[in-house]
């Protein structure tokens, strides 16, 4: 079965991963995050029990 021959496909996969790792990934990682992590502690909302009018 010719689709099981890894000879041409392995080189294509290896080339694409090298391209991604060396060229595309550093360009993507250079962008600044639009929502950087904050060091503030999260505040919890003050929740009060609901008073149901029919009880």
UniProtKB/TrEMBL annotation:
Domain of life: Eukaryota
Pfam families in the record: ATP-synt_8
Subcellular location: Mitochondrion membrane
GO annotation terms (biological process): proton motive force-driven ATP synthesis
Main localization, broad class: mitochondrion
UniProt entry tagged with the keyword DNA-binding: no
Transmembrane segments: 6-24
Coiled coil (UniProt feature): none
Gene Ontology cellular-component annotations: mitochondrial membrane; proton-transporting ATP synthase complex
InterPro entries: ATP8_metazoa, ATPase_protein_8
Chain residue ranges for the region called Disordered: 34-55
An MF annotation (GO) of this entry: proton transmembrane transporter activity
Membrane topology recorded in Swiss-Prot or TrEMBL: Single-pass membrane protein
Similarity comment: Belongs to the ATPase protein 8 family.
Protein name per UniProt: ATP synthase complex subunit 8
Species of the source: Machaerirhynchus nigripectus
């Amino acid at each position: 079965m010719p689709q099981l021959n890894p000879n041409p496909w392995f080189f294509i996969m290896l080339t694409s991963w090298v391209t991604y790792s060396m060229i595309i990934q550093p360009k993507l990682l250079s962008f600044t995050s639009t929502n950087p992590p904050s060091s503030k502690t999260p505040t919890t909302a003050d929740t009060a029990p609901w008073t149901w009018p029919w009880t």
